[in-house]
Each structure stands twice: as structure tokens, then as C-alpha cells.
């Protein structure tokens, strides 16, 4: 069962992206010309020693925007993943542990969100809510939980059937107590793996929503940079430095988290498999 | 006797799903903060209606906005049955006309690329999954994962930069004009199709590779190999066949994802399909058009799911018992 295993490259890429985001302001102060890059009113300057990644359509330093954008993209990635994992875990544990009607009802809601295309629904909701940082987080968080819920539910169901839960029930432990203290710790492995994978998806989803023009215009993210390159003609201008770097950043930060998540998931799967074989 | 009952129950589920989509679509504009009439008429029509009481009355009566929610829902359902999605102010046309024009343009991109990537991805995934520990195969698998995490529209932008701007091989985007020659149509379609095919092939390869690895550990595989079956014969009969049903159901779930990717690619290529329409609706705040587009996209994806279910039923005898 060696799929991707532990992947150091994933950790590295995600780590670089996180370091970029955390130290963005510090890094920006090292740019020639200070915090916002070399002030230059000349649009579409190609990369040079004063503007390492050139300038965009309004003459802003691309590297400076890229560094600022890293904060927006990654914080939405992390927050969106937190909200969606929280939802998925609560719904999954609840459905898996309670069983019966609760399980069935939650199961059909999960099915609904699994089948309905997520991105178009996100576009619809985000368009109504209006572009803002928290709205993007909420839209991603509220719509990206079904897979997590499903996997957590399966695991919770498995745990529900094990003898120690039966014992707890026999002793008279209350259901919320069992769910919190005994089921939750046992689904932790899958929850963590799903969280890391959700960070990767959230980064991509945020980029997609921003590319469509539903991101927060006050805090331009990497996806927003692609949006501006597309709508304001940088692409037609051949100004590759305005859209190649943000694309690379989106791809590799999301790839980093995917690789970590896949590694965690396959390790978790093999560990639960061996436990299952023993019992 | 089981055959119709099973399918009937499956399709009943899908009907409920479609009903749920319509209900959500009905409720969103009515529950959002702000006057629902802005969302239902569209901003521009609302502005005009505010200044003209007679028009306002007529529109309110048409959508039944002064009636209780249940009656409104009934009116909404009836108009959907008549394929009446309302009026798009940004295009100045009936929405149903716009969609009838643009949905085929999206399908002409998604269907061929999906079929192509299913075939190519299955072949690549089978190859990668068999003796998957070899270094070249691991590199290709890693590349597939990498491609899958690239934003499709960014890939599209790179292609445009390279093939259209620098090499001048393909047009910069847009749909071919009406009555264009076959060559022109192929030129316009080639890049979007290529981007989608690459992206979806990478995804299918990853899935098939995983399934192949899983199946190749089964005892019957060892038995088949020890009988001395040829490699191709073995792959097709013993690796591909058992992995088809899970592949189909997985693909059904990911169909929405593939479709979403296509929507964004359309924007990059200014290809006037559903994605481009949604994009313009977002920019113009044309809520009725946006909602109708979402409904249609959701319906297509749900139908694709139903089709995948029916196919896996036809292919897999296990699902019939």
C-alpha cells in the first residue's frame, strides 16, 4: 500500500508558502523602493533590477502585490479549511454515531452537496453575499464539507460498533460525552488529513472565485491578480510577469498541501487497516 | 423484476435532488439581505420599476411577489416548466434563449474532453498502477498530481500566451463566427479542449492508478498471473474490469468538479458558454441570468450522475443483487 508515502517535497512547498505569508511584510521591506516596491507609474515594465517581477497595468510592483496576496490566499485557505473541516467533522461524527433517522437525514444532505457542482453554487452564493474576505471564507467553508463528513461518518460508524463503546453505553455514559471523549479522538487522524487536503482545495477555490471577480477587491489575492491580468489586458499585452508568478504560487502551495494530505491519508489508512485486521 | 425497481429508486432520488436544487434556487434571493425584488428582477429593471409604479405592479403580479411564499413557489415552478427563466437586462433578451444558445457551446467542450480523458487516463492509470514502485512511473504519477493542482484557467492563460501570442498558431479566444470554416472551428476549439483534456486526464490517471494498485493486491490477480496470462490481456480482463464501477461512481462525483473547471477555462478563452455567461452575469450583477445558469449547470451535472449510475448498473452485476 505504498501510494505516495511521506512526502518531504509537499512539506517544503507548503512551508515556503506559509513562510512567504507570515513574513510577507518583512520581505516587502527588503524590496528596492520599500514596502510597496519601487514606485513606478509606468505600466507593464518587464522584470528588472528595480522591479524584480516587473509592473502591472497601473504600474504597481508585481512582487509587492504577490507578497501581499500570499497572506490573503493562505489565510482564506486555512480559514476556509477550518470551517469546512469543523462542519464535516461535527456532521460526520453525529451521523455516524447516532445512526438511524439522523444518519439518513444528514446523509441525504451530504449527498445533495456532493452531487450539486460546488463551484457554481459558490459563485451564486458569493455573488449574492457580495465580495468580502469573510464571505469567501464562509462560502468555501459552508460548501466544502461533504467529503470530510462522509469519511468521518464511515469511521465513526465503525467505532460505534466496537465493544468499548458498547461498554460505555452499558455503564450509562451519555451520548454527547461518548461522542466528544471517545469517538472524536478516534477520528482525529482522518480529520487532520482532511483538513490539510481542504487547505489545498480552499486555496484553489479562493483563486477560482477571485478569478471570476468575487474576491475582496481591497485585499487582492493571487487569484485576483489572475483576474486583473485577464480583464485588464495584461494577457493580451503579453505581460507574462503579471500572471505567471501568481499561478505558480497557487499551484505549488496547493500542491504542497495536497501531497502532505495524501501522505497523511495513506498512512492513516494503512494504520486503521491493520487495527481492523486484528479486531 | 429487480432491474426496474432499483433504477426507479435511484432516479427517484435524483428527482428529489433536482427538486431540492430548484427549491434552494427559489429561496436564495428571497432570504438574502436586501429587497428580494432586486435579485429577482435584476438591478436595472428594479431601478426602472421603482420609478414606474405601473411596471412595478405588473412585475410584482407576474412573479406573485405580494403572495405568500408557497404561492410564489408554485408560480416559480410553473414558469420553470415553461422554460421561462425570466428576462436578462444585461443582454436585453429572454434568458431561455441565451441558455439555449450557450449550453451547447459548453457541452461541445466538456463532452469530447471528458471522453478523451477517460480513455487516455484509464490507459495511463493502468500503466502507472502496475509495478508502481518503479522510478519513471512514480515521476509521471507525481506529475499527474501536480497538473491536477494547477488552476485550469491559469493553464489556459499560459497556453494562450504561448500558442496564440508567441507562436500565433491559434486565435486569441472567443467563439468562431457563424458560418466559419471547419478549420477555423477546430482552431478555436483546440486550445480549450487541450487544457481540459490534460487536466481531466491527470485526474483520471490518479484515480485509476489507485484502483489498480488496490486490485493488484487481490489474490485472484496472483492466480491470473501465475497462470501465465499476457500483460495486455491481464490488464484488460483482471485490472480494468473490476475497477470500472468504482471508477464510474467516482467520476460521477467528480463530474461537477470537471464541469467547474470547464466554466473557468471558458472565461480565460472568452468562449461564450455557460461559464462565460455566469462570469458576465456576476460582473453585470444580472442575478436572474446567474441563477438560471446555475440551474442549468446543476441539471447537466445531475444528469451526468444519473447516467453514470445507469452505466455502472449495466456494467456491474454486483450492483444488481
From TrEMBL, chain A:
Q: Provide GO CC annotations from the record.
A: plasma membrane
> Where are the bilayer-spanning segments?
13-31, 76-98, 118-145, 187-214, 234-260
Keywords annotated in UniProt? Cell membrane, Membrane, Transmembrane, Transmembrane helix, Transport
Return one Gene Ontology term, BP aspect: transmembrane transport
Q: Which PROSITE patterns match?
A: ABC_TM1
Gene3D superfamilies linked:
MetI-like
Pfam families from the UniProt entry: BPD_transp_1 (PF00528)
- Can you give the residue ranges of the ABC transmembrane type-1 domain? 70-261
Record's superkingdom? Archaea
Membrane topology reported for the UniProt record: Multi-pass membrane protein
Q: Which InterPro entries does UniProt cross-reference here?
A: BP-dependent_transpt_permease, MetI-like, MetI-like_sf
Q: Where in the cell is it found?
A: Cell membrane
Q: Which protein family is it in?
A: Belongs to the binding-protein-dependent transport system permease family.
Q: Which PANTHER family match?
A: D,D-DIPEPTIDE TRANSPORT SYSTEM PERMEASE PROTEIN DDPC-RELATED, OLIGOPEPTIDE TRANSPORT SYSTEM PERMEASE PROTEIN APPC
The protein, known as? Oligopeptide transport system permease protein OppC
UniProtKB/TrEMBL annotation, chain B:
Q: Which GO terms describe its cellular component?
A: plasma membrane
SUPFAM superfamilies hit by this protein: MetI-like
User: What sections of the sequence does the record tag as coiled-coil?
Assistant: none
Give any single GO term for biological process: transmembrane transport
**Is this entry keyworded Transmembrane?**
yes
The protein depicted here goes by the name ABC transmembrane type-1 domain-containing protein
Its transmembrane ranges are 12-32, 103-130, 150-170, 182-208, 247-269, 289-315
Query: Is the Cell membrane keyword given for this protein?
Result: yes
> Where is each ABC transmembrane type-1 domain found?
103-308
Q: Pfam families attached here?
A: BPD_transp_1, BPD_transp_1_N
Family listed = Belongs to the binding-protein-dependent transport system permease family.
What membrane topology does this protein have? Multi-pass membrane protein
Mind listing the UniProt keywords for this protein, alphabetically?
Cell membrane, Membrane, Transmembrane, Transmembrane helix, Transport
Localization, UniProt? Cell membrane
